[in-house]
Amino acid sequence: MSTSSTAPILPATLATPAPPAVHDSGADTAPGEIVVASCTTLGTTLVIHLTGEIDHYSAAPLRALLYSAADHGCTGLVLDTARVTFCDSGLLAVLDWWPRHGRRLRLANRSRAVQHLLNLSATAGQQPAPAESLTAAGTS
Fold this sequence. Notes:
about 140 residues; 5 helices; about 25% strand
């Protein structure tokens, strides 16, 4: 004689997942979102208008765009940051890479967040090279 059982494989106390433990470090760990609002070329100069937040994670697509532009012969970059609402050292890392090998960089219409980052960088003595390309470029 055989009997069938309809009892669950796991007891009910083990079958229901425990609520996740929440650890609040106090910092916003969500990556920022940067949007390339427009991207055009004028000869060998790339002109990019950015919108949003730039951090280590959201800077990756911008970095890839700049690598591609450099591979295709762009030697100048005008970066309009008027609508950037937040930025951290992720932006500095991207900007530090571009001027290498004789490329030109100009920051136009710097937002308050970008200007604040540049001021902090200059104060800390960790300004990306070449220094004059970031601080001397006026807004237009």
